[in-house]
Amino acid sequence: MNVPEGAAPLRRRTGIPGDERERGLTAAALAEGIHLAALRAAASANVGGPVRFLPVPAMRQPRIIVIDAAGPAALPYARLVARLQPLELRIETNVDAALETVARDSWDLAVVTARDALPAARLLESVRVADPELPVVVIDSEPAVATARKCLQAGATDYLELARVDAELEGALGRLREAARRQATGIALRRAVERPYSFEEFIGESTPMRQVYDLIERVAASSIDVLVSGETGTGKELVARAIHRRSRRAAGPFVPVDCGAIPDTLLESELFGHERGAFTGADARRIGLVECADGGTLLLDEVGELPPALQAKLLRVLQERRVRRVGARQETAVDVRVVAATSRPLDAMVERGQFRRDLFFRINVVRVDLPPLRARGDDIGLLAEAFASRAAHEAGRPAPGLSADAYQVLRSYSWPGNVRELSNVIRRAVAMATGPLAGVDDLPDELVAAAGRGAEPEGTTGFFAQRAEHVARFERQFLVDLLSRHVGDVAAAAREARLPRGTLYRLLKAHGLDGASFRRPPAGPQG
User: Fold this and answer.
1) What is the full DSSP assignment across 267-283?
2) Which of 43, 41, 9, 40 lies closest to 27, judged by CA?
3) What is the rounded distance in angstroms from the CA atom of residue 364 to the CA atom of residue 426?
4) What is the DSSP letter of 326?
């Protein structure tokens, strides 16, 4: 495969070993439209055999996160989004929340505005800690040559003066948008080569998940509304994003709204916007999130949490595709596709009168039911491997494997928190593992005990159940002997056991013990 001269290799963003140079998968080559068949042939030649492929994901628009304490109105972000489409823009005003978002989600670029409260270099350093490979454009309200040099040496992609941002920011974002677009194409093709069991941001090849993938493929091309149901932690927002990226609206905005996280008193204004003077504190017109999603997709996460009054207003918006801001006389037309998501049984809520029947029918045009993790079989192993690689990459260490016993525990556990819980468990196991394999001892004790109970047929006691029982008996007897020796003195008992006093109190509570019951009553008068 011929690679254009001077082409730069793809940047490492996901912890996958950087062998793109040998394979010739470069951003410039990909941008020139190399045929997928050539990629398949090259991949097979390099990995020693045929490779199974799922359809290559449609290229998504670049995702840019803006961190600016002054809010969306401070700089011309809306105008830039309109002129630089397609891209997805998110504006965060709280630095701590923004850093959590940077660390948790995948972004192609960060734009950070340093104002009086936080120096530019320190803000850049915080973003680089959250994601060391994320390109960052710094906008400084107090520019200085020394600060610019320090930021660029620390890895900033660009350094702009706040006073000249109108003239410079659009050009900087335009250049980086094109680079991010080429990178997104490369990531999609690389995933097809290296992770044939993936689909969009999902990992798994079980029958229930393949049915989900097929339904996403079929429904994405249309504009009908979709209801995504599933337990907490199954990936409902990932379904919504996949539908958006594979639809004709992929160039438009994707706007997620967590209906359960916004107070009822603010929810109407957040969704539909308001005019200046509509209520106390409405000092300026505010565009609602429904209007922000015009031309794209609106995700109403946990739609079952909407109060009854807003359910009626949302129904009208969905029927008429028109929205009226709070305090406005005129309605505004919107072209938006709605994906609603819920972890609650909406059909049962309808029967109990807790959710409007007509709204339920309106959003339940096509329903995607996500399976719980316990129903996904061997996907647990694939997910655990991916999470371990990611956690090890973040920690700067080789990814440990998973012992057979540990894998059996993961398969036997019921996973009430689903994929999100598995991710946290694997991160803990990677941190605790001291050798090349993460074992049962690196998993939380309560998970091992619960897996043992769930894995044993009725009337039997297997390894994990017996181990949990022995541990519980040992702990209780140890505590009884310890408190007996110290006559209920918890402080002295904690010193002997070399345990923090709070830990000893928690153990006593777990076993129904109390130091007071071990204290000897005072001796009575001698007869």
Assistant:
1) HHHHHHEE-TTSSTT--
2) 9
3) 35
4) B
Segments in 307-378 forming alpha helices (H):
308-320, 346-351, 357-363
* Residue 245 near residue 57, CB atoms below 8 Å: yes
Q: Number of H helices and number of E strands within the chain?
A: 22, 18
pTM of the model: 0.53
For the chain, 527 residues long, give each residue's pLDDT as a single digit of tens. Answer: 333 333 333 232 333 333 333 333 323 233 333 333 333 333 333 333 333 333 333 444 567 888 887 776 556 555 555 555 556 677 888 888 888 888 777 777 888 888 766 678 888 888 888 888 788 888 887 888 888 888 888 888 888 887 776 666 667 666 665 665 565 555 555 444 444 566 888 888 888 998 999 999 899 988 889 999 999 999 999 999 999 999 988 888 999 999 888 888 788 888 888 888 777 777 788 888 998 999 899 999 999 999 988 999 999 999 999 998 888 888 889 999 999 999 999 999 999 999 999 999 999 999 999 999 999 988 898 899 889 988 888 888 888 888 878 888 898 899 999 999 999 999 999 999 887 888 888 998 888 888 876 554 444 445 555 665 677 788 889 999 999 998 888 888 888 888 777 778 777 876 788 887 887 765 555 54
Helix (H, G, I), strand (E, B) or coil at 91: strand
Residue 465 vs residues 412, 417, 510: alpha-carbon distances, Å: 12, 21, 18
CA distances from 236 to 175, 243, 485 (A): 33, 11, 55
Determine how β-strand 332-333 pairs with β-strand 322-323.
antiparallel
Q: From 236, 257, 213, select the one nearest 418 (Cα to Cα).
A: 236
